[in-house]
Amino acid sequence: MNSADNTVSESSMAQSRALYVFAVACFPILLAGVLTLLVFLTGTVERDDGIGHKSDYVQIQFPRPGKMVGDNFTLKGVVDAVPPGEVVYIVEKADRRYWPKKRLGTSPTEFVNKHYTRPGQGYKYDIEVISVNAEGDARLGQWFDSGKKTGKYPGIEHIVGAQVLAKVRVVHE
After folding, report:
1. What is the pTM of this model?
2. Average pLDDT over residues 130-144
3. How far apart are CA 9 and CA 155, in angstroms?
Protein backbone atom coordinates (compact mmCIF):
# COMPACT_ATOMS: atom_id res chain seq x y z
CA MET A 1 0.00 0.00 0.00
CA ASN A 2 1.44 3.36 -0.92
CA SER A 3 1.07 6.73 0.78
CA ALA A 4 -1.55 7.98 -1.72
CA ASP A 5 -3.80 5.05 -0.77
CA ASN A 6 -3.31 5.85 2.94
CA THR A 7 -4.27 9.51 2.37
CA VAL A 8 -7.43 8.54 0.48
CA SER A 9 -8.32 5.97 3.14
CA GLU A 10 -7.73 8.43 6.01
CA SER A 11 -9.69 11.11 4.18
CA SER A 12 -12.56 8.69 3.61
CA MET A 13 -12.56 7.68 7.28
CA ALA A 14 -12.52 11.31 8.40
CA GLN A 15 -15.54 12.04 6.20
CA SER A 16 -17.33 8.98 7.60
CA ARG A 17 -16.61 10.10 11.17
CA ALA A 18 -17.83 13.63 10.44
CA LEU A 19 -21.02 12.28 8.87
CA TYR A 20 -21.57 10.00 11.90
CA VAL A 21 -21.09 12.90 14.38
CA PHE A 22 -23.46 15.07 12.33
CA ALA A 23 -26.10 12.30 12.27
CA VAL A 24 -25.83 11.76 16.03
CA ALA A 25 -26.12 15.53 16.66
CA CYS A 26 -29.24 15.81 14.46
CA PHE A 27 -31.03 12.79 15.93
CA PRO A 28 -32.62 14.57 18.95
CA ILE A 29 -33.91 17.39 16.73
CA LEU A 30 -35.34 14.92 14.24
CA LEU A 31 -36.94 12.84 17.01
CA ALA A 32 -38.50 15.93 18.64
CA GLY A 33 -39.95 17.00 15.29
CA VAL A 34 -41.47 13.59 14.61
CA LEU A 35 -42.97 13.39 18.12
CA THR A 36 -44.42 16.90 17.84
CA LEU A 37 -45.96 16.04 14.49
CA LEU A 38 -47.47 12.84 15.93
CA VAL A 39 -48.94 14.70 18.91
CA PHE A 40 -50.69 17.26 16.72
CA LEU A 41 -51.84 14.76 14.08
CA THR A 42 -53.41 12.48 16.68
CA GLY A 43 -55.29 15.39 18.28
CA THR A 44 -53.71 14.83 21.69
CA VAL A 45 -53.05 18.56 21.86
CA GLU A 46 -55.05 21.11 19.94
CA ARG A 47 -53.37 23.78 17.88
CA ASP A 48 -53.94 27.54 18.18
CA ASP A 49 -53.37 27.84 21.93
CA GLY A 50 -56.74 26.21 22.60
CA ILE A 51 -55.73 23.44 24.93
CA GLY A 52 -58.78 22.42 26.92
CA HIS A 53 -61.79 24.03 25.24
CA LYS A 54 -63.76 20.91 26.15
CA SER A 55 -63.70 18.52 29.06
CA ASP A 56 -65.99 16.09 30.86
CA TYR A 57 -67.63 19.12 32.50
CA VAL A 58 -67.77 21.90 29.91
CA GLN A 59 -67.56 22.46 26.19
CA ILE A 60 -66.90 25.93 24.77
CA GLN A 61 -68.48 25.89 21.31
CA PHE A 62 -67.66 29.44 20.19
CA PRO A 63 -65.18 30.94 19.75
CA ARG A 64 -63.08 27.99 18.68
CA PRO A 65 -59.46 27.85 19.88
CA GLY A 66 -57.36 30.57 18.28
CA LYS A 67 -60.40 32.18 16.67
CA MET A 68 -60.03 35.83 15.72
CA VAL A 69 -62.68 37.93 17.45
CA GLY A 70 -63.78 41.55 17.11
CA ASP A 71 -64.63 44.05 19.83
CA ASN A 72 -67.97 42.29 20.41
CA PHE A 73 -68.57 38.56 20.24
CA THR A 74 -70.80 35.97 21.85
CA LEU A 75 -69.36 33.14 23.89
CA LYS A 76 -71.40 29.93 23.57
CA GLY A 77 -71.10 26.59 25.28
CA VAL A 78 -72.56 23.87 27.44
CA VAL A 79 -71.99 22.90 31.06
CA ASP A 80 -72.55 19.13 31.01
CA ALA A 81 -71.78 18.54 34.69
CA VAL A 82 -70.67 20.48 37.75
CA PRO A 83 -68.21 19.10 40.31
CA PRO A 84 -70.07 18.30 43.56
CA GLY A 85 -70.41 21.30 45.89
CA GLU A 86 -68.99 23.72 43.30
CA VAL A 87 -70.34 26.78 41.46
CA VAL A 88 -69.45 27.53 37.83
CA TYR A 89 -68.34 30.94 36.48
CA ILE A 90 -67.14 32.39 33.20
CA VAL A 91 -63.96 34.49 33.59
CA GLU A 92 -61.56 36.27 31.27
CA LYS A 93 -57.87 35.93 32.06
CA ALA A 94 -55.18 38.27 30.79
CA ASP A 95 -51.80 39.24 32.20
CA ARG A 96 -52.22 36.77 35.09
CA ARG A 97 -55.40 38.48 36.31
CA TYR A 98 -59.03 37.36 36.18
CA TRP A 99 -62.17 39.31 35.35
CA PRO A 100 -65.30 37.34 36.26
CA LYS A 101 -68.05 37.73 33.65
CA LYS A 102 -70.98 35.58 34.70
CA ARG A 103 -72.10 33.12 37.36
CA LEU A 104 -73.50 29.99 35.66
CA GLY A 105 -74.61 28.24 38.84
CA THR A 106 -74.56 24.72 40.19
CA SER A 107 -76.33 22.65 37.54
CA PRO A 108 -75.82 21.69 33.88
CA THR A 109 -76.87 24.40 31.44
CA GLU A 110 -76.20 25.96 28.07
CA PHE A 111 -74.61 29.39 28.19
CA VAL A 112 -74.43 32.41 25.94
CA ASN A 113 -72.51 35.46 27.09
CA LYS A 114 -71.72 38.71 25.26
CA HIS A 115 -68.10 39.86 25.48
CA TYR A 116 -66.99 43.42 24.78
CA THR A 117 -63.30 44.23 24.46
CA ARG A 118 -61.02 46.80 22.87
CA PRO A 119 -57.55 45.51 23.60
CA GLY A 120 -56.03 46.12 20.16
CA GLN A 121 -55.14 43.98 17.18
CA GLY A 122 -53.37 40.69 17.86
CA TYR A 123 -54.02 40.78 21.63
CA LYS A 124 -54.50 37.27 23.03
CA TYR A 125 -56.35 36.35 26.20
CA ASP A 126 -58.10 33.34 27.70
CA ILE A 127 -61.74 32.78 28.46
CA GLU A 128 -62.12 30.15 31.15
CA VAL A 129 -65.05 28.34 32.65
CA ILE A 130 -64.10 27.63 36.24
CA SER A 131 -65.67 26.04 39.27
CA VAL A 132 -65.17 27.38 42.78
CA ASN A 133 -66.00 26.17 46.25
CA ALA A 134 -68.35 28.03 48.61
CA GLU A 135 -65.61 30.41 49.78
CA GLY A 136 -64.66 31.29 46.19
CA ASP A 137 -68.33 31.80 45.30
CA ALA A 138 -68.77 34.19 48.26
CA ARG A 139 -65.68 36.22 47.30
CA LEU A 140 -66.75 36.46 43.66
CA GLY A 141 -70.22 37.55 44.81
CA GLN A 142 -68.58 40.31 46.90
CA TRP A 143 -66.48 41.34 43.87
CA PHE A 144 -69.61 41.71 41.70
CA ASP A 145 -71.45 43.64 44.48
CA SER A 146 -68.50 46.00 45.02
CA GLY A 147 -68.24 46.61 41.28
CA LYS A 148 -71.94 47.50 41.03
CA LYS A 149 -71.54 50.03 43.85
CA THR A 150 -68.27 51.63 42.70
CA GLY A 151 -68.37 51.06 38.94
CA LYS A 152 -64.85 49.61 39.16
CA TYR A 153 -64.03 45.99 38.43
CA PRO A 154 -60.33 45.47 39.11
CA GLY A 155 -58.69 42.26 37.98
CA ILE A 156 -58.28 39.51 40.54
CA GLU A 157 -54.85 37.91 41.01
CA HIS A 158 -56.10 34.67 42.56
CA ILE A 159 -59.57 33.16 42.77
CA VAL A 160 -59.91 31.06 45.92
CA GLY A 161 -60.63 27.39 45.22
CA ALA A 162 -60.77 27.83 41.42
CA GLN A 163 -60.53 24.82 39.15
CA VAL A 164 -60.42 25.38 35.36
CA LEU A 165 -63.05 23.20 33.66
CA ALA A 166 -62.45 24.47 30.10
CA LYS A 167 -60.66 27.36 28.44
CA VAL A 168 -60.15 28.88 25.05
CA ARG A 169 -57.58 31.40 23.89
CA VAL A 170 -58.93 34.09 21.62
CA VAL A 171 -57.07 36.58 19.46
CA HIS A 172 -58.41 40.08 18.85
CA GLU A 173 -58.69 41.05 15.15
Report:
1. 0.69
2. 95
3. 71
Torsion of CA 44, 82, 133, 165, to 10 degrees: 20
pLDDT in tens, 154-164: 999 999 889 99
Q: What is the per-residue pLDDT across 3-27, written as a single tens digit (0 to 9) for each?
A: 555 565 777 787 888 788 787 787 7
**Dist. CA 48–CA 55, nearest whole Å:** 17
Is 48 within 8 Å of 65 (Cβ atoms)? Answer: yes
CB-based contacts of 80: which residues, under 8 Å, 6+ apart?
56, 57, 58, 59, 108
Whether 88 contacts 79, CB under 8 Å: yes
- Distance of alpha carbon 115 from its chain centroid, rounded? 19
d(CA 81, CA 53): 15
